[in-house]
Write a structure and sequence with these properties.
Shape: elongated
Number of helices: 9
CATH class of the largest domain: Alpha Beta
Number of domains: 2
Oligomer: single chain
Radius of gyration: 20 Å
Strand content: 15-25%
C-alpha cells in the first residue's frame, strides 16, 4: 500500500508552495497525495461526526467554494506529481484537531503544510495550525516557509538534504527515517553539527573535554553516519561548525550548500524534548528558503 502524504490547504496563496513541495516529497516517498480543506462546522460537531461535503447532503456556500478550489488544486497537482491525488472538504470547529484526526485515520506518512509570513511581534509558527500539527501529532511534518515562495507553481525536485545532527539518538533516527524513503538513494546528504565556539572552552573543560576534543568527537560521529550512507551509494558531505546560534548556521548552510530541504529532529541532546520548536526550528522556519522536515521520535 502506497504511503499517503496529507496536504492541508486553506485557499490562500501559500497553498501553491505547499502543493509544489508536497508533490516533490510524494515522489521521494513513492506515495499518494491527499488534499484536505477544513471549513468551520455550522453546528459545532467534531470532525469525526461531521460529514464531508461532496457526498451526502448539500454543501454550504463556503464549502462549495472550497470544493471548487481544492478540485482545481488536485487537477493542477496530478500531472506535476505523477502520483495519485485525492481530496476532501471537511466541516469542523477546530482546524488543527480535524487535521490531526484525519492524519491518524489515513495513517499519513507525512503532513506537508505551508506557514504564513510573520506579522509584527509574531513568531511565524507559534500557535498556528502548522505549529499544532508539529507539536501535537506523532507524524513527520514538512513546514514550507514563506522563504520557499520561489517553489510555488513549479515542479520541484528534492536532490540535496541538510541534516543537522548532535549526539542524541533522536538526531540519528532522522537519518534512519530518510533512509527508509523508497527514493532515498537519489539524495545527496549534508551532515551538519554545530559545536560550542572558543569562548565556551571553560564549559568544555568542566565536562572534562577540550574544545578541540568536542569538535573532533563531532566529526568522528558524523563520519560514522556518513560511512553508512556511502555504503548505500550516497554522496555525503560532513560539516562541523563552531557557533553560538545553531539556527543561524543551519539557515546559512541552505545557500552555502545549495540544499533543497532541511530535515531535523524535534528532540535534541540532553533530553530537551521538542527543543527545536521552541528555539532552533522556529527560527529556521522563519528564515529558511527551503522546506523544513520535522520529526518527533517515538521513543
Amino acid at each position: 500500500m502506497a504511503a499517503t502524504i496529507l496536504v492541508p490547504l486553506d485557499g490562500t496563496d501559500k497553498d501553491d508552495r505547499a502543493l509544489a513541495i508536497a508533490a516533490a516529497f510524494a515522489r521521494l516517498a513513492d506515495g499518494a497525495l491527499h488534499l484536505i480543506r477544513v471549513c468551520e462546522a455550522p453546528d459545532g460537531r467534531p470532525a469525526a461526526e461531521a460529514p464531508a461535503s461532496g457526498h451526502d447532503g448539500a454543501a454550504r456556500p463556503d464549502e462549495d467554494a472550497a470544493e471548487r478550489s481544492i478540485r482545481a488544486a488536485a487537477d493542477w497537482l496530478a500531472p506535476i506529481a505523477h502520483r495519485p491525488v485525492t481530496w476532501e472538504v471537511v466541516p469542523a470547529p477546530d482546524v488543527a484537531e480535524a487535521l490531526l484526526h484525519r492524519a491518524a485515520e489515513l495513517d499519513a506518512a507525512l503532513v506537508v503544510v505551508a506557514t504564513r509570513a510573520p506579522r509584527p511581534l509574531d513568531r511565524a509558527i507559534r500557535g498556528s495550525v502548522a505549529d499544532r500539527l508539529a507539536r501535537e501529532g506523532p507524524r513527520p511534518v514538512v513546514l514550507v516557509p514563506p522563504g520557499a515562495e520561489h517553489a510555488a507553481g513549479k515542479r520541484v525536485e528534492l536532490r540535496r538534504a541538510l541534516v543537522p545532527l548532535d549526539e542524541s539518538a533522536a538526531a540519528r533516527d532522522m537519518v534512519d527515517h530518510l533512509l527508509a524513503l523508497p527514493r532515498a538513494g537519489d539524495l545527496e546528504w549534508v551532515l551538519l553539527e554545530v559545536v560550542p565556539p572558543p569562548h565556551a572552552a571553560l564549559v568544555d573543560a568542566l565536562r572534562g573535554e577540550t574544545r578541540h576534543a568536542v569538535a573532533e568527537r563531532a566529526e568522528r560521529r558524523l563520519e560514522a553516519v556518513a560511512e553508512r550512507l556511502r555504503a548505500r551509494g550516497a554522496t555525503v558531505d560532513v560539516r562541523v561548525v563552531e557557533a553560538d546560534v545553531p539556527a543561524a548556521i543551519i539557515s546559512g548552510a541552505v545557500r552555502q550548500e545549495l540544499v533543497d530541504f532541511i530535515a531535523i529532529s524535534t528532540r535534541g541532546a540532553r533530553g530537551l524534548e521538542r527543543w527545536v520548536l521552541g528555539s532552533v526550528a522556529e527560527s529556521v522556519v522563519r528564515t529558511a528558503e527551503v522546506p523544513v522536515l520535522l520529526r518527533t521520535p517515538t521513543r
